């Protein structure tokens, strides 16, 4: 029974990784509602380090922030919804709404707790 559960969990993780990799060439958001509701631990607990990084930065990308990091810029430039328009230096915290601030902080805290930061 425990072996079966482990396989099911591994399959779920593999699916999340596949979805993130598909996101590099199109796809949608990692966390589609991160700008309109408070996320929970359950929303982020199954994400890989790479997915957490994308999810955190998609909060900024929704507003058109341009990324200094070449990999992030390439990733978000592949998204139909991304419209780069604000240089990193010109991006202001006040551009984020209360959900986005709370959700970014949740993701950062999750990364810290798991030793990712």
Describe this structure in words.
Helix content is 54%, strand content 0%. It is built from 5 helices and no strands. It is globular. Residues 1-7 have low confidence and may be disordered.
Please identify the structural class as seen in this structure.
mainly alpha
Per DSSP, the total helix count is: 5
Strand content: under 5%
How is the biggest beta sheet arranged? none
Shape: globular
- How many β strands by DSSP? 0
Q: What string, H for helix and E for strand, traces the elements in order?
A: HHHHH
Query: What fraction, in percent, of the residue positions are helical?
Result: 40-55%
The radius of gyration over CA amounts to 15 Å
- Nearest-integer average pLDDT: 85
Distance between the termini: 35 Å
Show unreliable segments: 1-7
Could you give a short description of this structure?
With 117 residues, the chain is an all-alpha fold.
Give the tags.
117 residues; disordered N terminus
Secondary-structure topology with pairs:
Layout: H1 2-23, H2 41-44, H3 49-61, H4 70-77, H5 98-113
Helix pairs in contact: 3-5
